[in-house]
Amino acid sequence: MTDKQTEMTTMDKVNQSLARRYRAERRFRAYGMAAILFGLACLVVLFTDIIGKGHSAFLQTYVAMEITYDSDVLELSDPSDSNAVARADFQGLVKQSLRDTFSDVSGRRDKRALYALISNGAGFALRDRLANDPSLLNRSETVWLLADDDVDTYVKSRDDEGGAFTGRLNEKQIAWVEQLIADNAVEKRFNTTLFTAGDSREPEQAGILGAMMGSLFTLLVTIALSFPIGVAAAVYLEEYAPKNRFTDFIEVNINNLAAVPSIIFGLLGLAIFIGFFEMHRSIPLVGGLVLTLMTLPTIIISSRAAIKAVPPSIRDAAYGLGASKMQVVMHHVLPLAMPGMLTGAIIGFAQALGETAPLLMIGMVAFIVDIPGGVSDPATALPVQIFLWSDSPERAFVERTSAAIMVLLAFLISMNTLAIWLRKRLERRW
Amino acid sequence: MEAVMKETQTENLTERAEQKDHLQQEHTGETVGTSFCNDAKMSMRNVNVYYGDKQAIHNVSLDIGRNEVVAMIGPSGCGKSTFLRCMNRMNDTIESCRIDGEFILDGADIYHAKQDVVPLRAKVGMVFQKPNPFPKSIYDNVAYGPRVHGLADRRSDLDEIVEVSLRRAGLWEEVKDRLNSPGTGLSGGQQQRLCIARTIAVSPEVILMDEPCSALDPIATAKIEELIAELSENFTIAIVTHSMQQAARVSDRTAYFHMGKLIEVNDTKRVFTNPEHDLTEAYITGRFG
Description:
- The complex is a heterodimer of chains A (430) and B (289).
- Chain A has 430 residues and is mainly α.
- Chain A is 67% helix and 5% strand.
- Classes of the chains: A mainly alpha (430), B alpha/beta (289).
């Protein structure tokens, strides 16, 4: 009798608790879903904001002007003389053309306002055209010239609901722009300058190629140094180092280094590479060295984990056949650990590519117009360029900042894709 | 025919055992039966093995005769695998492991300071409990040892070593058309025979087998056992096994380990029909284990 009673109550209790357990499980799953949704929402907000702000940077306003390559204005007699061409006042041609188009404009102040419609870099385009085709001298042609950033911003925001962003343009200038638009002399084209130019004070002439090359050289130095050093350190620590206090001490310190704020590495680089070794400031070599220091702990930790994950049975098999330690490492451990090591390393490189703070400390934050051609040319890096542009007052830099962020994100996403691809490719099953 | 052969071997051993019977008691005290033999390939004397503070092997002395198959049986944790792994210094990789006593292979101590482990392991090969082929092709698996030791100068020599090894492991017919497919794609039994082929490709003189069939089904096990019988013509084999039937089928002599001590060594037939020691009897009759 008592047996039956306990059996009943046991089942009842189970049933009772069952409902409670299922409720708890549903809640548990809901927490997980909420976390994922929150993450996704953040991602969507981030991307909409960046793309919404930045997509217009990929277009640039051009203005069609009738240009006469007047040798008097240019003070140029021989167009094949490259020195003379380099000295000639091509911006004068632009001004001449603007005066011709808007012949009613008079007064110094108004004229200056008129000249401001076209980028002060437009003359370089004309110089290049003449240098390519000297027969253009004293002839006329219609050329699409780079508009000033204020005009560019105005043209892009004309159709906005909240009204156009006029910025520094005054009413007269707006009227001139409207007249040009009415004459079909204004056009938005793909902004090649963004990808072919270095930095500039003028937004319409500013590009990210310099920063991209700077990032590339910095990253190359980082990859070339940190991967071999990191892997060698990991192999030594895992395979050769005696397990004693000293090894433990090193291990703790490597783990701590991974948590050191990156700006500290920047200070270290400043003190050691620039201060002690007297390397130059602002160069990708120093940047790469600093980022190597920063990336090493990440690579060592992930490589050690990958080496630890190699099944001991494989080592036993190789040792049992009489392979030496180095043969075991080179033939079996490294190939099997390679996918894990590469994944860790590429994540480290992606982190290094997005790093700004340490580069500020070693002078890679300078305003550098020239595109670096090697690891010892002054350069800046993509994230630093973003930082610099976001700090600039010109409205046109806002969209360019977002565009640069998009390029950086594209870099990072492609690096992570590469990491996944490499892992898939190198993975061996057993 | 095999059975007949085994029979004669056993008889020889019994004779020898009787001659030396009085000696054993003197030498090892605890171990009963025939620990030693006249034509020993490997002789272990007074072996003690410690893992840190824990002693895993207590004063074990044992001979493995030339071209003899010695089975080591005993309950889990009795130290038989540890003892086996010490025989080609595989326990060197375990930091806390400390070994004293003598391991004599062909008259030389393998733990001598001047003994290099690389040639030792080429001479004393090992087959493990779980089949552990490299994640490489079947060919590369077998060719690995010869390549590492530089045994083949030409590609054709290497091809020959691979073929001969696979034939001796009874695997050639099954894999000759797919030597370049991964060794890990074979079935469990085939993988274990591949591992045996890989071991004999280096032409060792002694093969240590650590429960080679414990991960295999009965049919694959039967094949491996058949193979062991064939290999015993050319190799000296020490095999650790959990299966008493297997020990009875493949071995010439059987050593029974208990709690790190070697309790009894006798020719296999005797151990399973008329054990000398009470513990051995208790184990083989299934009273514990």
